[in-house]
Amino acid sequence: MGNKLYVGNLPYSFRDSDMEQAFSQFGSITSAKVMMDRDSGRSKGFGFVEMGSAEEARAAIEGMNGQNFGGRDLVVNEARPMEPRAPRSGGFGGNRGY
Protein backbone atom coordinates (compact mmCIF):
# COMPACT_ATOMS: atom_id res chain seq x y z
CA MET A 1 0.00 0.00 0.00
CA GLY A 2 1.20 3.50 -0.83
CA ASN A 3 0.84 6.54 1.36
CA LYS A 4 -1.11 8.80 -1.03
CA LEU A 5 -4.86 8.89 -0.44
CA TYR A 6 -7.81 10.00 -2.53
CA VAL A 7 -10.42 11.87 -0.48
CA GLY A 8 -13.80 12.28 -2.16
CA ASN A 9 -17.22 13.72 -1.34
CA LEU A 10 -15.65 16.70 0.44
CA PRO A 11 -17.82 19.65 1.45
CA TYR A 12 -17.32 22.44 -1.09
CA SER A 13 -16.11 24.72 1.72
CA PHE A 14 -13.16 22.39 2.52
CA ARG A 15 -9.67 23.82 1.96
CA ASP A 16 -6.16 22.35 2.14
CA SER A 17 -5.74 23.38 5.79
CA ASP A 18 -9.04 21.73 6.76
CA MET A 19 -7.98 18.46 5.18
CA GLU A 20 -4.55 18.61 6.79
CA GLN A 21 -6.11 19.23 10.20
CA ALA A 22 -8.64 16.40 9.79
CA PHE A 23 -6.03 13.81 8.75
CA SER A 24 -3.20 14.86 11.10
CA GLN A 25 -4.71 12.78 13.92
CA PHE A 26 -3.53 9.66 12.04
CA GLY A 27 0.11 10.71 11.59
CA SER A 28 2.35 13.10 9.73
CA ILE A 29 1.04 14.80 6.60
CA THR A 30 3.45 15.25 3.69
CA SER A 31 0.88 17.14 1.60
CA ALA A 32 -2.84 17.90 1.55
CA LYS A 33 -4.45 19.33 -1.58
CA VAL A 34 -8.12 20.03 -2.30
CA MET A 35 -8.68 20.27 -6.04
CA MET A 36 -10.18 23.61 -7.02
CA ASP A 37 -12.18 24.64 -10.10
CA ARG A 38 -10.12 27.09 -12.16
CA ASP A 39 -13.08 29.21 -13.21
CA SER A 40 -15.20 29.45 -10.07
CA GLY A 41 -12.47 29.03 -7.43
CA ARG A 42 -14.74 26.54 -5.67
CA SER A 43 -13.67 23.11 -4.47
CA LYS A 44 -14.32 20.25 -6.90
CA GLY A 45 -15.29 18.08 -3.93
CA PHE A 46 -12.20 15.87 -3.87
CA GLY A 47 -8.53 16.03 -3.05
CA PHE A 48 -5.42 14.10 -2.07
CA VAL A 49 -3.54 13.59 1.18
CA GLU A 50 -0.06 12.14 1.37
CA MET A 51 0.69 10.55 4.72
CA GLY A 52 4.17 10.00 6.18
CA SER A 53 3.99 6.19 5.91
CA ALA A 54 1.85 3.37 4.56
CA GLU A 55 0.80 2.47 8.12
CA GLU A 56 -0.43 6.01 8.74
CA ALA A 57 -2.27 5.95 5.41
CA ARG A 58 -4.00 2.69 6.36
CA ALA A 59 -5.01 4.16 9.74
CA ALA A 60 -6.36 7.29 8.00
CA ILE A 61 -8.47 5.21 5.60
CA GLU A 62 -9.91 3.18 8.47
CA GLY A 63 -10.54 6.27 10.57
CA MET A 64 -11.84 8.72 7.96
CA ASN A 65 -13.70 6.68 5.33
CA GLY A 66 -17.43 7.23 5.90
CA GLN A 67 -16.94 10.03 8.44
CA ASN A 68 -19.42 12.88 8.10
CA PHE A 69 -18.01 16.35 7.39
CA GLY A 70 -20.38 19.19 6.59
CA GLY A 71 -23.26 16.79 5.95
CA ARG A 72 -21.24 14.63 3.54
CA ASP A 73 -19.78 11.17 4.16
CA LEU A 74 -16.16 11.13 3.05
CA VAL A 75 -14.82 8.50 0.67
CA VAL A 76 -11.19 7.75 1.49
CA ASN A 77 -9.07 5.16 -0.28
CA GLU A 78 -5.62 4.65 -1.74
CA ALA A 79 -4.98 6.97 -4.67
CA ARG A 80 -4.54 5.28 -8.03
CA PRO A 81 -2.22 6.61 -10.72
CA MET A 82 -3.89 9.06 -13.06
CA GLU A 83 -5.01 7.42 -16.29
CA PRO A 84 -3.93 9.06 -19.54
CA ARG A 85 -6.63 11.21 -21.11
CA ALA A 86 -7.52 11.59 -24.75
CA PRO A 87 -6.28 14.82 -26.34
CA ARG A 88 -8.66 17.75 -26.05
CA SER A 89 -10.64 18.78 -29.10
CA GLY A 90 -12.20 22.08 -29.98
CA GLY A 91 -10.75 25.52 -30.35
CA PHE A 92 -8.53 26.42 -33.26
CA GLY A 93 -7.50 23.23 -34.98
CA GLY A 94 -5.19 24.79 -37.56
CA ASN A 95 -4.70 23.47 -41.10
CA ARG A 96 -8.34 23.59 -42.06
CA GLY A 97 -7.77 24.90 -45.55
CA TYR A 98 -7.71 28.58 -44.73
UniProtKB/TrEMBL annotation:
Alphabetical UniProt keywords: RNA-binding
Pfam families with a match to the protein in the record: RRM_1
Transmembrane parts of this sequence: none
SMART domains from the UniProt entry: RRM
GO terms of molecular function: RNA binding
The keyword DNA-binding is annotated on this UniProt entry: no
Name of the protein: RNA-binding protein
